[in-house]
Amino acid sequence: MTAAALAGTLPKHASHEGISRMAPPRAQRVLIAVTGGIAAYKVPELVRALVRAGHAVRCCATHNAAQFVSPLVLQTLSGESVRTQLFDPEQEGEIDHIALADWADLVVVAPATADALAKMAHGIADDLVTTLLLATRAPLLVAPAMNVNMWRHPATQANVATLRARGVAFVGPESGMLACGWEGEGRMAEPAAIAAEAERRLGAPTLAGETVVVTAGGTREALDPVRFLANRSSGKMGFEIAAAAARRGADVVLVSGPSALATPAGVRRVAVESATEMRDAVAAELARCTVFVAAAAVADFRPAVAAKQKIKKEALADDAGLVIELVRNPDILAEVARAPGRERRLVVGFAAESEDVLAAARRKLERKGCDLIVANDVSRSDAGFDVDTNAVSFVTAQGDETLPLLSKREVAERLLDRVEALRAAAHDEPR
Ligand SMILES: Cc1cc2nc3c(=O)[nH]c(=O)nc-3n(C[C@H](O)[C@H](O)[C@H](O)COP(=O)(O)O)c2cc1C
Fold it and tell me: Would you say the pTM of this structure is higher than 0.90?
């Protein structure tokens, strides 16, 4: 990239949408949903830990949970009344169940019984807690706890896999002596570990001070005023990365090709159409950028000429096809990896491959000079373009890590964990 391009201002066609970001919003409202497992007796410790950390905590409990922990204890520690019933005019009058579902920034299900996991996986809403879990739009953090055989049962494992793929996060269970006398996996994670994971999900500002520039979506390369060459990218992966980085306190700029997705909270969106517009928009942000994530599916080629008027078939001979000459687009990722100030910046690329995925990603890492390549196999129907899940590998100079099929939201979190580790290692290096 030329110095002129780097110093360039935002092109006219790129529009800034939204807000610039101040301090990270510390989401603070935690709803703890307690279901009927013996580990419910530990929930008061969880309530205390989250209250001590400065969060507003409310609890709701199933009828069976109230056998294991007194709602009065939860109410005393949280300072809020505890809802246990759906059809209770008094409780519903105080805060109706939908308002409670909407109130939460995070819902923690602890302990989560096998029964609760099954109902969540199947969208069953037959009491207050399961209705809230279906109604809320807040992220869910689930701490399962049960007998080892219940945990290992294929039904429970299938329910967990369904929930994971839907973006639900899990903490535990741990292995050890269980209250039922069996030994094995099934013990609820310790309240301190659940609280720590909740804090992380609430957006502990671990990326404060970083300016993260994310490209997302596909590009459109104009053939004429009405037609363009495009690709199947929806932008979902890049939008999730931008959202996750904002939750972690980074200043986030999302340079996006055309996408119907809503701009995530706290993210500044720069809308572009073509690869060259995307390159210019990235160049305008690069001076401040400390982490660059190229998740966009940028067209490698564009028509050499975009016709000023609509191309008419009548203008061609009756039997003639249309030959379009394509020229190369700028390689945004490689340009950023070579741009001045590289030592201050972490560069992450994506490699969407349909065969020999890891080998192709390793070659891309070297050829483009990136710090990390996220390789995804777009030949799978449950990963890659326009689906909510992704199966990726992280490829760095130190080696590869292949993740299971996860929601794109979870992939974004894992990627940012990696980014944080690489940034920390870079800071520790002698200068
Ligand atoms: C003493 C006792 C302890 C129990 N502990 C658990 C447990 O740890 N995990 C679990 O999934 N179920 C446990 N159960 C069974 C659940 O309480 C039962 O499946 C119930 O229907 C769950 O209801 P809920 O999910 O609506 O709270 C236990 C039952 C009893 C009687």
Answer: no
Whole-Å CA distances, 39 to 43, 62, 68, 175: 7, 14, 8, 14
- Per-residue pLDDT, 12: 28
> Could you give the residue numbers annotated as active site?
180
Asked whether the predicted pLDDT for residue 25 surpasses 70, the reply is: no
- The number of the ligand 1 atom at minimal distance from the alpha carbon of 62 is 27
Lining residues, ligand 1, CB within 6 Å: 35-39, 62, 64-65, 113-116, 145-146, 150
Find the 403 Cα to ligand 1 centroid distance in Å: 32
Among the CATH numbers 3.40.630.30, 3.10.20.90, 3.40.50.10300, 2.40.10.220, which is that of 3-23+206-428? Answer: 3.40.50.10300
